[in-house]
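Milestone 3.1: sequence recovery, worked example.
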């Protein structure tokens, strides 16, 4: 399968509305890369108060969406028994840069790539675009932990 819909993603991640930010994962190359789609809408929960009259997606939620996309890519690629009863926790964020504001009623595309893995620790990089315009980029690490 080279794509996942929202229901497929819900089967991989513990996130639920309103915090499940990614709507699709496409162009999946197992345990290597994928593109996540985030449909930023005028009624998205984060737009209501950030900022009234001039809404923008918070940068921290772009980073969260990067993390969710990476977790879904990893979970989708691992053997289910390896990933069962596990969570992926963000460990650090490096080099996060926000280049342009992400405004509602757009399709935010997150191009993510797994740079390396060592045991349960993974490192990723990503670039966020709208209409092929770079909005943000980051490098981050996450770890897979046992669910309590």
């Amino acid at each position: 399968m080279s794509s996942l819909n929202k229901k497929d993603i819900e089967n991989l991640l513990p996130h639920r509305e309103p915090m499940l930010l990614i709507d699709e994962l496409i162009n999946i190359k197992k345990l290597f890369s994928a593109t996540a789609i985030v449909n930023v809408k005028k009624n998205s929960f984060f737009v209501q108060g950030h900022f009234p009259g001039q809404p923008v997606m918070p940068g921290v939620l772009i980073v969260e969406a990067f993390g969710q996309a990476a977790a879904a890519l990893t979970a989708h690629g691992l053997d289910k028994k390896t990933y069962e009863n596990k969570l992926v926790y963000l460990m650090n964020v490096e080099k996060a840069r926000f280049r342009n504001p992400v405004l509602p009623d757009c399709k935010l595309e997150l191009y993510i790539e797994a740079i390396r893995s060592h045991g349960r620790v993974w490192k990723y990089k990503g670039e966020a675009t709208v209409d092929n315009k770079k909005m943000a980029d980051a490098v981050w690490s996450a770890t897979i932990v046992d669910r309590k």
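The first helix runs from residue 6 to 12. Residues 8 and 24 are 9 Å apart (CA to CA).
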